[in-house]
Amino acid sequence: MARVRNPRQLAVLTLNELEKTEDFLGEVLDSHLRHSALSGLDQGLYTELVYGTVRMRRNLDYVLASFSSRPLSKIKPAVLNVLRSAVYQILYLDRVPARAAVHEAVNLARLFGHEGVARFVNGVLRQVIRQGETIAYPDPESDLVQHLGVKYSFPDWIVGHWLNWLGKEETAALCQALNEPPKMHIRINTLRYSKEEVHSYLAGQGMSVSPGRYAPDVLEVGPAHLVISDPALEAGMYYVQDESSALAAHALQAVPGQAVYDLCSAPGGKATHLAQLMGNQGKITAFDISPARLKLVDKNARRLGVTIIETKPGDAAQNLKLPPVPRVLVDAPCSGLGTMGHRPDIRWRKGPGDVRELAALQRQILQAAADYVAPGGLLLYSTCTLTRDENQAAAEWFLANHRDFQGFSFPDWFPLSDEPAWIKSIFPHRHGLDGFFLAIFRKYRV
Q1: 243-443 domain in CATH 3.90.1150.10?
Q2: Which CATH superfamily is domain 7-134 in?
Q3: Using 50, 70 and 90 to split pLDDT, how confident is the model at 1?
Q4: Rounded percentage of the chain residues whose pLDDT exceeds 90
Q5: Domain with CATH 3.30.70.1170 in the chain
Q6: Among this protein's residues, is 175 annotated catalytic?
Q7: How many CB atoms lie within 10 A of CB 87?
Q8: Phi then psi for 340, rounded to 5 degrees?
Q9: pLDDT per residue over 141-154, tens digit each?
């Protein structure tokens, strides 16, 4: 098959593939980028079209259903993806003229259909252009869940959970924030480089660079494709990690020479960060249920020059009979809803049943982890999701069922919140970072 040179055509091909497989969006997109013949500018347009169309799919389908003479279920999937990506350009991409979006979509309709399909696509899109500003979303007074879900393109169950937990204003702001273009952060490898050295180097490569909001070893950088492709990444100058995730290693407050367990370690971002903060002195034992994924921990450790990590296969939900140590990290498997800015397909992959199953698993892991903490030691629980069941409820359950633990406190420079001192919830609309949750506990008696 010839390499595709049209970013809009490749976007539709990618959307078609995503609907047929259960592959993750990022993996499919990266594969297509590697094998495409797109220019740098076209790579940016292609990426925006795929991510944006996936992110706003519910909203786009609502708009299309308002103007299509045919039920969307009767439209060929490839043609529907042509329409979705075109409407995304018309409604959400200011830099793309509407007429250009229509022209390209009509050509793609001929490619994926025939002349009659092209006329149908042309008619629908011209109606969207003429009447797009008059679209009436579900009435917020009679059905706020539907209103927010359609307008911001989230499943009803997610919106309903946030409304019950956070209220109307916060939920709307959170939905908006998760639909904004995501920021990119890197963690400096402080074993080898200073913040100033990395800042200077990246700026010299033509990248935008600014300090992180909170963590002293994090930079906000861009554009993403330059950061990922720069040889300094492979050479171990930095590690790509959202700043909210980078707070976890700081929260555990490990010191040089200590022993640490990282119970759900792969791919090793937090374990290698802990090693940096410990000055590469002590011992970190990194467990993961997947031996194959543990190889990623080893690979990242080698790349960053970390020598104190030992990897071991192990199911964190089972009691591994480990001797107690001063620091234990449980970065638990979770629904990942805090990362929807970077991974918009998650909103369509997860359901309330997944949250219930994960919440039960998280409690199993915490139950086992409690035995591994030495008296006076710290246990950190973290997730990258935004459900109360997996976050606050899990932390409260742990304290209620483990009387030998109490809440501890975070470093003074951590984000402020109105929560108990031992909990930190990071929200995209409040902190400008991926959603994340941290709870820290101290074991105070045998």
Answers
A1: no
A2: NusB-like (1.10.940.10)
A3: very low
A4: 88
A5: 184-240
A6: no
A7: 25
A8: -65, -20
A9: 999 999 999 999 99
Residues of the chain with CATH 1.10.940.10: 7-134
* Residue in the structure block whose two tokens are 């259960």: 22
Does this model's pTM top 0.85? My answer is: yes
Q: What is the pLDDT of residues 320-353, one digit of tens each?
A: 999 999 999 999 999 999 999 999 999 999 999 9
Q: Rounded distance, CA 257 to CA 275, Å?
A: 10
Residue 213 tokens, joined:
């909001």
> What class has domain 184-240?
alpha beta
Q: Which among 175, 264, 334, 384 is annotated as catalytic? A: 384
Residues of the chain with CATH 3.40.50.150: 243-443
Asked if 158 and 346 touch (Cβ cutoff 8 Å), the reply is no
Distance in angstroms (rounded) separating the CA atoms of residues 330 and 316? 9
pLDDT confidence bin for 39, thresholds 50/70/90: confident
Q: What is the mean pLDDT of residues 257-271?
A: 97
Question: Token pair 């991974």 is at which residue?
Answer: 343
Task: Measure CA of the first residue to CA of the last residue in the chain; give whole Å.
Answer: 65
Closest CA to 235 of 148, 300, 308, 332: 300
